[in-house]
Write a structure and sequence with these properties.
The chain has a domain of 44 residues. Helix content is 36%, strand content 0%. It has 4 helices and no strands. The chain is elongated.
Length: 110
């Protein structure tokens, strides 16, 4: 692993920046935040961190993978959502809920 530092010294003129007033800052390229946008904001300070995804190598039949890829962007997320739905249904059946079509073991055609 390369441990070479890739950070550079700042080229910001901090003295000039300290002398500026808020009204001198050009915000023309920054969109206005509407109350609706602000209402959708999520503050995470002090909350449990979001669980990150784990990268793995997974063997999937080519036709299945190609079908998902043809669905466009987000195909990996959709695969994850389907696996999550299967997991939830399997957990329900393991906890004594009535079995359904997700509770049967998957079988490969190989």
């Amino acid at each position: 692993m390369n441990k070479k530092c890739i950070t550079r010294n700042s080229h910001t003129d901090w003295e000039q920046l300290d002398k500026m007033n808020d009204r001198d800052i050009d915000l023309s390229d920054v969109p206005e935040i509407s109350p609706e946008m602000f209402g959708k904001a999520i503050a995470r300070k002090g909350l449990k961190p979001i669980e990150r995804k784990t990268q793995i190598t997974l063997r999937i039949d080519s036709d299945v993978l190609n079908w998902f890829r043809k669905q466009g962007r987000g195909y990996q997320t959709r695969i994850n959502l389907l696996l999550r739905a299967y997991m939830k249904e399997k957990r329900k059946s393991e906890q004594g809920a009535a079995p359904d079509h997700f509770s049967a073991p998957l079988q490969s055609g190989r």
